[in-house]
Amino acid sequence: MLRTTQLVLRPRVAVRRGAALATAALASARMVPVVRQLHVRREPIAPSITVRRASTVASPPTGLKPLPAKILIANRGEIACRIMRTCRRLGISTVAVFSEADAKAQHVRLADEAYCIGPAASAESYLRQDKILAVAQRTGATMIHPGYGFLSENAAFAALLEQSNVTFMGPPASAIDAMGSKSASKEIMLAAGVPCVPGYHGSNQDPTFLAQEAEKIGYPVLIKAVKGGGGKGMKIADTPAEFGDALESAQREAAKSFGDPTVLIEKYLTAPRHVEVQVFADKHGNAVYISERDCSVQRRHQKIIEEAPAPHLAEELRRELGEKAVAAAKAVGYVGAGTVEFILDAKRPENFYFMEMNTRLQVEHPVTEMVSGLDLVEWQLEVAAGNRLPLLQEELKIEGHAFEARIYAENTDANFLPDTGRLVHVALPSTSTLTHSNTALAPRSGGVVGSEGQAEAVVRVDTGFVSGDEISVHYDPMIAKLIVKGRDRTEALRIMANALNQYQVVGPSTNIQFLKNLVRHPKFIEGQVETGFIAKHGETGLFGDPYTSEVQLQEAVAQGAIWLYQRDAAAALRGGEAAEGKASIWTNPAFRPAQTRRFELQHKTLGPLRVSVTPVDDAFDVKVEAKQATEEFKGLRTTGVTTVEATRTGLTTFMPTGVVTSFSIVAPGWFAKISEAAAGPVGDALASPMPSKIVDCKVKAGQQVKKGETLVILEAMKTEIALKAPRDAVIKSISGKCKPGALVPEATTLVTFESE
Ligand code: ADP
Ligand code: ADP
Ligand code: MG
């Protein structure tokens, strides 16, 4: 654990600051803007710090500059909401911008003012620099917070603001430029003595030349868009034979997502860890590192769960990574929040390499806030206002252990493909802290910031969506972030598992069940993390629902049937045939309350079920007959059980134990026949797995294709998906919809094959 020596030196600053923040946190709950007393208190202490560590300090602060009165947030979703919460706590007014698709979004509701800046497509709204600057100027917002994604790492935008009277809440354009290219930044790092993954980072993009370079590096190699981010524009080539296709695909994704097809080639490490360092710098020459984060568990090179501190790292190595990260920031005259990402040899972590620097606030910054007790958005505001870093290296204290789990709308069983749709139902775990830090706990633990000494389950949810909101194809599929903190890693994992059990989402598929499995996986609990974690342990309990027994599933189905019973009973009492007068094919008009009621249900793993529900006093006896076995539940009560019905998912029942199950009501025979006929013939065809855009169709009718050959390339959520031939076949026809640029809904037939 990173325990720095300043324990002794620190109290005057940190306790007061903590106390002030605690008051602020309480006050913000009542939405009262808080005046910034903490700055006044901090001031006289600063000069003594200069004496303590001359190397990290430039000019001592001479009076603090005020924070802005109003800022514009050029983003959406959870990060926009999270930035606004800090602004509210500090009494700063907020201006939101939004696309037509987001008119009812949470960030629009949460802001003090909001302005529509264009259609759904990011290029016409959230990426419109001119419109965003115009809104800032018109509303008198003096700063723009770019969040992450969108314009956050856009040097041209930072430069545009540098020419205006509005401050960019990020590093200078020159630093974004220097670090914005994964290749140029590696040259800078090598010059600063930081090791990089061996590879070719130059400007020659000739395919034959690049293939030669790949040969020199040795396979497997990784092809990366130099301007890439979010795991996009990255392709692995295991063999020379795969290089050509991988290069083409990487370049295409790079051009489309980042406006630059330039790639670099580097050695692909097979079992590395991803460890990154949070750095912060001010305009006075101070720079610090605030703990590292391990983000190794990834799918499609994109993080799923992050933690701080990184498990199983020697204290010395932690410090070395921190110091290298600060050196990186200093090498480019960095200002503000940044992240320096390293890749480590999982077996020999002392072999580490610089990967890239993200010149913005990172998605996973909350884990750092949890273990440091700081609000990094507040720090960004301080730095942008021209003030010194609120604390310097010696004053930072890291304690406890934090995790962040990203809740994504995606189908974990279908290779984590993003999903979209309306959030029919969302229920969050009970949270103990609304924003950045653990200071809400201060009063309970006797005025001391943090969890030292006492068990405190800290649970925070950063979300930008509530029930009824839409997860749209146009933007990132991340719904929320669940952040927890405990005194140590084991405790934090337990808190996370418990919070995930309470997290309920109905609508698009989500990765919640996967996350539940992950935090209970023995290897994850041991901290045996690496980027290949899912590939390595996928077979041992990461997918499906391995921790729930058949009886538990049946009990959940029994509860779902009780819900159906009660719904029909309520409708019958109202004299109608179904709830809210919506008669359906499943309504039983003869049903009367207090009678036994039978349901024919279909469950994904249990198969067809016959369920009978009989009310007994204020409880229910339920019999669940499955093919294999019959289970009888006597005297079931419904306390703490939630059942939700949605068009796409049928019924979903959430048990207070965290067991979740979905099932559907079997339609009458005549109805099933009609629907089958409407759906048309299946088999021998390739369909779009989700709403997407056609990028390329590589085949023609009559063509012979080999199993595994790429036939159609789709793009959804800015990610390319290659649809491959399921077998050797002859193409029978290509759908008229299968043309580059066409938008197709889910399950659109694109290509058909001749029968075998
Ligand atoms: P990285 O994977 O580079 O370490 P993060 O995991 O912090 O970065 O994710 C940020 C990346 O994810 C962005 O660079 C962007 O590609 C994508 N992203 C996440 N959220 C958004 C958003 N709201 N808008 C656009 N892009 C986003
Ligand atoms: P992005 O900008 O998309 O975040 P990065 O360069 O940070 O791109 O890489 C994203 C992820 O890809 C890393 O976290 C790591 O899991 C994996 N990765 C990157 N470089 C390598 C490499 N050379 N070998 C193996 N895995 C890598
Ligand atoms: Mg990265």
Automatic annotation (TrEMBL):
What InterPro entries does this protein map onto?
Answer: ATP-grasp, BC-like_N, Biotin_BS, Biotin_carboxylase_complex, Biotin_carboxylation_dom, Biotin_COase_C, Biotin_lipoyl, CPAse_ATP-bd
Q: What PROSITE patterns has UniProt attached to this entry?
A: ATP_GRASP, BC, BIOTIN, BIOTINYL_LIPOYL, CPSASE_2
What cofactor does its activity depend on? biotin
Residues annotated as domain Biotin carboxylation: 67-539
Record-level GO cellular component terms = mitochondrion
Q: Which Pfam families match?
A: Biotin_carb_C, Biotin_carb_N, Biotin_lipoyl, CPSase_L_D2
UniProt keywords, alphabetically: ATP-binding, Biotin, Ligase, Nucleotide-binding
Which superkingdom, per the lineage?
A: Eukaryota
State the CDD domains in the record.
biotinyl_domain
Q: Where are the transmembrane segments?
A: none
- Molecular function terms, GO-annotated: ATP binding; metal ion binding; methylcrotonoyl-CoA carboxylase activity
Leader sequence residues: none
List, for all copies, the residue spans of the domain called Lipoyl-binding: 675-754
Q: Where is the ATP-grasp domain?
A: 186-385
| Name this polypeptide is given | 3-methylcrotonyl-CoA carboxylase biotin-containing subunit
Source organism per entry reads Pseudozyma antarctica
